[in-house]
Amino acid sequence: KMDVTMNLNYFNRDALRLQFDHQLPQREYLHQGKEVFKNHFENIINNLRSTYDSINYEDLEFIVDKIYESNRVCFAGNFFTQSVSMQLQIELSYLGKECSAMYPLQQQLLVIEQLTKNDLIIVSSIAGGFMISHPDVMRAISKSQAYKIVITQLDEFVYSDMVDMILQVGTDHHSLIGKFSITYIFEVLEAMYHLKYGTKNINNRKE
Questions:
Q1: How many distinct structural domains can be found in the chain?
Q2: What would you report as the CA-atom Rg of the chain, rounded to the nearest whole angstrom?
Q3: Cβ(17)–Cβ(175) under 8 Å?
Q4: The sheet that has 120-125: what strands, in order across it?
Q5: Distance between CA atoms of 133 and 130, rounded to whole angstroms?
Q6: CATH of the domain at 90
Q7: Domain range for residue 82?
Q8: Is 87 contained in some domain?
Q9: Cα angle vertex 41, ends 186, 63, to 5°?
Q10: What is the percent of the chain where pLDDT is above 70?
């Protein structure tokens, strides 16, 4: 119950900027709904385009290789990014990779504290809310021996100098439209992992 309440509070705090950059349109602009719809669409396209142009393919391949080499993969973040990462987790679990995610914060802390240098932590946060709201978790992550990757719109955040890799996505770190770029990255990672390592496992099973 406490975990659900916490996530609802975070959602309510960010609700006004969740879809339309900082605030929802006023009721008197209802007749301009088509223009609002168009602007929102263009903001999403610009965010995705910026991500596509700025992310190196080699960085994505490095993350895929790091996932494959790690004994355990821990996904940390708030509710939305945890949900987005689920499809990748399903692919990894199907291929025999031990994953952990979607835990309440206290359980996330316990999992993080048990990780070793042979493990991997992937933190995802659209606008950095996870890093700001949970310094205790970020502190535990910074102290972990596991390899640490952060996917976010920010280039600097609490303990940013203590992680091993920052994959910066999107355009405006104040905008939660970046959720589309976060989703895009996880889907690309899933596809790349399947192509590079999933087909290998499938062929091995056939043999």
A1: 1
A2: 18
A3: yes
A4: 98-100, 72-77, 120-125, 147-152, 165-168
A5: 5
A6: 3.40.50.10490
A7: 53-206
A8: yes
A9: 15
A10: 77
